Structure formats: C-alpha cells, structure tokens
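[step 3/7] fold_predict: job queued, chain A
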Amino acid sequence: MPRPLPRCGAGGSMEEFVQQLLNGLTVGSGYALVALGYTMVYGVLKLINFAHGDLFMLGTYLAVSMAVSCLGAGLASPWVVLPIIFLTSMGLVGVAGVLIERTAYRPLRGAGHLAPVVSALGAAVVIQNAVMLAYGANYQVFPEGLVPEARWIVAGMNIPVLRVAMLVLSLILMAILYLFIQRTTVGAAIRATSLDHDTARLMGIDINRIIMLVFLIGPALGAASGIMIGLYYRQVYFTMGWIYGLKAFTAAILGGIGNIPGAMVGGMILGLFETLAAGYISSAWKDAFAFVLLIAILVLRPTGLLGERVVEKL
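[step 4/7] structure written:
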C-alpha cells in the first residue's frame, strides 16, 4: 500500500493529520478491494479463498509485463497504456480465478470444510511458485515515466496526484460493485445464492454460473488493487500476496465476512487505524496494530462490525 507518512509526533500540525487521513483512506481502499474477493467467495460458498492474495500478486506481475510490452511497442501515453494494463490484467486474473474454482474448489464442493481449505492453500503455493519461476525471485520494476510524478499543493499540504487517483478509482470500483449486487438481476441471483443454494436452484438460478462469476469479479478487483499498489511503489515481489492478502482478510473479518459493505468499511477502518497508529506511535509496529485491532473486534464482536449473527444449517 502507499508508503506511510513520516511520524507526526505530539506536535503534529493539522496539515500532517489530514495527510495521514488521506494516506489511511488510500491504504484502506486498497485493502477493501482485495477484501471484497474474500467476502464474495465466502458469501456464496462459505469458503476462505486463500489463493486470493496470490491472484492479487499475479495481477501486479502481469501489469509489469503489459507495461513493458506497451512501451516497447511505442505506446508512451499514460491515457493509452494504463487502460490497457488495467483491463488486460484484470481480465486475465479474473480468468485465472475461474480456472482455480473449476480445478481446485468445484471437485471438492461436497467434501466438507477441510479439503477445500487445503486445496486453496495448495493453489496459493502453485501460483506463487509459478510466478517465481516465470519472473525470477528478484523484484520486478515498473518502467519510469508510466505515471506522472505530479503533486498538488492544497492549503500547504503536498498531495500526490497518484494517491488521489488511487483512492478515487478504488471508490468508483466499489460503488460499481455495490450497485451491481443491489440493483441488477444477476446481483439478486448472487444474493439469493449466498442465502441458500437449494432454494436458489428451485428459483431457476444456475449456481455454478453464479459461483464462476464471483470467482471472476473478486480476483479482477484484487488485480486492480495490485496494479495501483505496484504503480505507487514501482516494484513488486512474488511473496507480496501473502501480507496484503492477510491484511485484506483481516479487513473482511473486521467488517463482517460475507458482507460486501462490511468489506468496504472494514478496509477503510483498517487502513485508517494502521496509518494513524504508525504515524503517531511507531511505524515499526504498523502490522502489529492491524492484528491487535482484529483481535479486539473478534473478542468484542465476533461477527464483525456489520456482520449479523446467523444460525448455520447442519
């Protein structure tokens, strides 16, 4: 996620505090996009897709390859290159998510809870090692000049345009997903499937197609988040899916696993809490703060902030 700002200290100004808030929202929006993949899969299958973080990582590597290819073909305008990078990488990662569902999860759908979890972990290891073998263990770097280093000076605050663009794009993608789920017929089918598979089948809903769509949308959103993170840092590594996936999973739990608005809220809260704690207390404990918050939520409200207590059918 975006680099944490320098520690403000007790005497930090209002400008520094506002910058920390902006940074936290940007961090949180990235967590939220990845968390949506976890929560959508759990909503329809009651399965934690542990390969989701590595699909996020795969999106960053595909984006690097696309960026190098576009620049090598003479395409230098960010207005041309960036849409190609986003659309291609999101599409390919979405297809990868569907393939994983067909090969690693669907054959084990009736095999209880443990077998799909083991299969998910195996899929994560396969993706991570495949990327390492294809690209090498060293960092991969985005080409220079792909994103302008523009900054805005607002009320004495130095605000990178890229950070604002990341936040705005993340919010747009989340809004589109929310409207899709709430306002469309397919979205109603997804909600029905998440409530009861048997009843959804009686209503004429193709359960397999809905699950396939969920595994297409979730990884595609994760890829979009990975591309933005890669563009901000300009370098990616093959193990990055583990830590970012774990943070996004924490955000999903925080908001209420299986709850789409909860994943969005949980990501934002986690990003704000982590960034403010790192800025005003210690950046060395940044990751620890995130999991302390998770433990507190699990103790005080195990279903998450927006989760509802339900009775599991046996």
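[step 5/7] annotate
Residues 1-11, 309-314 have pLDDT under 50 and may be disordered.
The first strand starts at residue 140 and ends at 141.
exit 0
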